[in-house]
Amino acid sequence: MNASKLLPSLLWILILTLAGFLLPACGSTSSAENQIRPFTIGAIPDQDPEKLQRLYGKLAVYLESELGVPVNYKPVTDYVAAVTAFKVGDLDMVWFGGLTGVQARLQVPGAEAIVQRDIDQQFHSVFIANTASGLSPIDDLAGLVQLKGHTFTFGSESSTSGRLMPQYFLSQAGVHLEDFKGEVGFSGSHDKTIKLVEAGSYEAGVLNEQVWLSRVEAGQVDLNKVQVIWRTPPYYDYHWVIRPDVKEHYGPDFVERVQAAFFKLDPNVPAHKEILDLFGAQKFIPTENANYAEIEAVGREIGKIK
Question: Within a domain: residue 27?
Fold first, then answer.
């Protein structure tokens, strides 16, 4: 074969070889572009980590089937970490308490409180006492003065039901942190508060009523050693808060689709009932930012919101 015929043949071989390298690369780029970004959810760690993993793992599977996008649950170490992860975008939606929800929304303009349980519009805390403490049941807010001179623990420092609202009610009764014996405790979670008071490490404490009732029902509380001495007036508490940029990632109607998925949970459907039971709820209902105005005001009053 002469040189004039060989040159076109070599050129075609070169073209086909280059095409072989380029086509897979192009296919890979297209695949990456079509891959859906996981919708990442989180929650304040207010209870036993194993229970939280079970709850939010089941919820992630349910939401993924309803929303048609991959859903991941990402645990956090504490309440502050939950707010920070939401702020920087590591978490797209978070189950917050009233205070942390307000803190998070103030740092992410456009963030929305979208869903709460049926029990969260009339939420309560309970004050508990070790039965050997000499503390007796209280009839009204003024009776909280009997806590003066006793050891006392809250839950997490940023907990609405385990610190913010209880401290507000204490102040209304004229009881301040310096009135307790020694330094007040911050147990870190509602479960730990029960155990500390039950063991006598603190004479009294306060926690979210829903956790107290669920632990009593499960037989996990020794009622011979610890009792409820007062139930607070109602207030708004837990709710889901979602970032505004989810609309860019998953479509302009995504927030409404998330709400619809929660509203669809039905206690008559066994798989749904399991999720609702873990949440301690019969159903989910709508909520909005304005419902937490009182929480924000109290947060500013005690210095938890600047």
Answer: no
